[in-house]
Amino acid sequence: MDVLIVLVFVSIVLVAGGLLLLVFSLNQRDFEHSDRLSLLPLFDPASTTTSASSDSNAAPANSAQDPVPSKT
Fold first, then answer.
1. What is the band of 72 on the pLDDT scale with cuts at 50, 70, 90?
2. What is the CA angle 40-43-45, rounded to 5?
3. Rg, Å, the chain Cα set
4. Where does the chain have alpha helices with state H?
5. pLDDT digits over 5-55, tens only?
6. What is the value of pTM for the model shown?
7. What confidence score (pLDDT) does residue 21 get?
8. How many other C-beta atoms can be found within 10 angstroms of the C-beta atom of residue 33?
9. How far apart are CA 45 and CA 63, in angstroms?
10. Three-state secondary structure call for residue 10
11. CA-CA distance, 15 to 10, in Å (whole number)?
Protein backbone atom coordinates (compact mmCIF):
# COMPACT_ATOMS: atom_id res chain seq x y z
CA MET A 1 0.00 0.00 0.00
CA ASP A 2 2.87 2.38 0.66
CA VAL A 3 3.98 2.02 -2.97
CA LEU A 4 0.57 3.17 -4.18
CA ILE A 5 0.87 6.41 -2.17
CA VAL A 6 4.34 7.05 -3.61
CA LEU A 7 3.11 6.37 -7.17
CA VAL A 8 0.19 8.78 -6.78
CA PHE A 9 2.50 11.46 -5.38
CA VAL A 10 5.06 11.01 -8.20
CA SER A 11 2.35 11.10 -10.87
CA ILE A 12 0.87 14.31 -9.42
CA VAL A 13 4.32 15.90 -9.39
CA LEU A 14 4.93 14.89 -13.03
CA VAL A 15 1.57 16.25 -14.18
CA ALA A 16 2.11 19.52 -12.31
CA GLY A 17 5.59 19.86 -13.82
CA GLY A 18 4.24 19.22 -17.31
CA LEU A 19 1.53 21.83 -16.87
CA LEU A 20 4.06 24.37 -15.61
CA LEU A 21 6.30 23.73 -18.62
CA LEU A 22 3.30 24.07 -20.96
CA VAL A 23 2.30 27.41 -19.43
CA PHE A 24 5.91 28.62 -19.61
CA SER A 25 6.17 27.58 -23.26
CA LEU A 26 2.90 29.31 -24.14
CA ASN A 27 4.04 32.51 -22.43
CA GLN A 28 7.36 32.46 -24.34
CA ARG A 29 5.50 31.88 -27.66
CA ASP A 30 7.85 29.05 -28.61
CA PHE A 31 5.18 27.45 -30.77
CA GLU A 32 5.31 30.31 -33.31
CA HIS A 33 8.94 29.62 -34.22
CA SER A 34 8.09 26.30 -35.88
CA ASP A 35 5.43 28.01 -38.02
CA ARG A 36 7.96 30.58 -39.17
CA LEU A 37 10.52 27.92 -40.02
CA SER A 38 7.98 25.84 -41.95
CA LEU A 39 7.08 28.82 -44.18
CA LEU A 40 10.70 29.84 -44.80
CA PRO A 41 11.30 27.45 -47.77
CA LEU A 42 8.32 29.03 -49.56
CA PHE A 43 10.03 32.44 -49.56
CA ASP A 44 11.98 33.18 -52.75
CA PRO A 45 14.44 36.03 -52.13
CA ALA A 46 15.02 36.45 -55.89
CA SER A 47 11.37 37.37 -56.45
CA THR A 48 11.53 40.38 -54.12
CA THR A 49 14.35 42.15 -55.95
CA THR A 50 13.67 44.17 -59.07
CA SER A 51 15.79 43.51 -62.12
CA ALA A 52 16.48 45.63 -65.20
CA SER A 53 14.39 43.28 -67.34
CA SER A 54 11.27 43.74 -65.22
CA ASP A 55 8.29 45.74 -66.43
CA SER A 56 8.67 49.47 -65.82
CA ASN A 57 4.98 49.75 -64.86
CA ALA A 58 5.27 47.14 -62.15
CA ALA A 59 5.49 48.34 -58.58
CA PRO A 60 8.95 47.85 -57.07
CA ALA A 61 9.20 45.02 -54.59
CA ASN A 62 10.05 45.80 -51.01
CA SER A 63 12.99 43.53 -50.20
CA ALA A 64 13.20 44.84 -46.62
CA GLN A 65 9.77 43.49 -45.77
CA ASP A 66 9.73 40.11 -44.07
CA PRO A 67 7.37 37.72 -45.93
CA VAL A 68 6.76 35.68 -42.77
CA PRO A 69 5.40 37.61 -39.79
CA SER A 70 7.82 37.62 -36.90
CA LYS A 71 6.79 37.28 -33.32
CA THR A 72 6.19 40.52 -31.50
1. low
2. 125
3. 25
4. 2-28, 31-39
5. 999 999 999 999 999 999 998 888 777 777 777 877 777 777 665 555 545
6. 0.44
7. 94
8. 12
9. 8
10. helix
11. 9
